[in-house]
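Q: I'm teaching a short session on how sequence maps to structure, and I want students to see two examples side by side rather than one. Could you give me a first protein with its sequence written out and its structure tokens following it? Keep the formatting plain so it prints cleanly on a handout.
A: Of course. Example one:
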Amino acid sequence: MGIVVNLEDGKREAATIKKLLELTASDMGRVNELILSKAGSDVQMIPEVANHLISSGGKRLRPMLTLAAAQMFDYAGDGHIKLATAVEFMHTATLLHDDVVDESGMRRGKKTARMIWGNQASVLVGDFLLGQAFRMMVDVGSLDALDILSTAASIIAEGEVMQLAAAKNLDTTEDEHFAVIKAKTAALFSAAAEVGPVVAGASRNDRAALRSYGMNLGLAFQLIDDALDYGGSSSDLGKNVGDDFREGKVTLPVILAYRRGTGEERAFWKKAIEENDADDAALERAIGLLARHSAISDTIGRARHFGEIARDALAPLAATPQKSALIDVIDFCISRVN
């Protein structure tokens, strides 16, 4: 059953990351080569599982942030290539682990690795990729970069556990949800943006600006994902529309609609989320309730708020093509709801 929701009133010209793609194209070519090299192993299953996800068409936005942020400060070495690859491996490992925790069947339009090779293989190959990421961080020789990315890895794991503890809990507050997505999603965006200026030897203020930019961009990105689950497209999401609902995930639109709903509506949410009564008819009703209580539009509004904070974080930095490209990324992330 296809359900179409108008997430915004009216369409605007689509934002793109064309500038970012152009500025990082040469470096991303080197990153892609390193990804293929470092995903290799004499253990046959490891490259099979890793490449299943690595080659499945993700935008590789996070490593591009690292590359552009290093370029902003005229970095001339190759450490940013290794750090960008490490960032992508961390992200890929997180996806492999997420799909096991969430029992997901689809990722980027393909069967998840766990559906083909099993949960154990997904977890262990994710661990292998994390190990390779840390080896590349050490190769770069920057203790600051190692500290930033290793801290992010720890925070991401904490976010996963926080989400697990809050699973199907409709009493989750908005603040508690922000704490989860800050850890699960925004921490890696923040680290990816900050290690660029770190390896380039930029000032502490410049580092702080990129760190804040990445954190708030990550929050905006995840909130838009929360909204898209109830009316986007599978290509935008990298998973099936409605997956969050079917998996009983308590995302911001659900939190808002549940809190604003009547007693009867809250009973519906409890049955759908807590008791897994989440068929297509329930999804259709859920979307109607989200619209009635402006839960989607308010989620998008909060995403725009974090997008503006990200934009302001970059404001003091000198005008460069990379700065302009990073600002475009904010608009692109939010424009996915058009």
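Q: Perfect. Now a second example for contrast.
A: Example two:
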Amino acid sequence: MVREDLYRREGAEAIIVRPLDDIVLLYHRPSGQTHMVISPVPEILDAMADGLPASATMLRDRLALLYDLGEGDVVGEIGQHLAYLDRIGLVRPA
């Protein structure tokens, strides 16, 4: 079994979310930065709202309950999004 990195979302008070048509603005209070993102980033963050550590596989399972994720390397794509979210400070390693 391959070990997957676990991540936690920043607390709800740290991120202000504002939908704007097809994009979502995420204002990160601690850094003062605003990020413009598109799907599936907001959905991934929503799936992490409970504050519990989550891996890409765990998030795929959570998202699959709500969305048709299609074919392909969904876990790999979610992992790439998590790495991006870590770089910009919206999630952190657990």
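Q: What should students look for in example two?
A: Point them to this: The mean pLDDT is 94. Also worth mentioning: Helices lie at 41-47, 56-64, 74-87.
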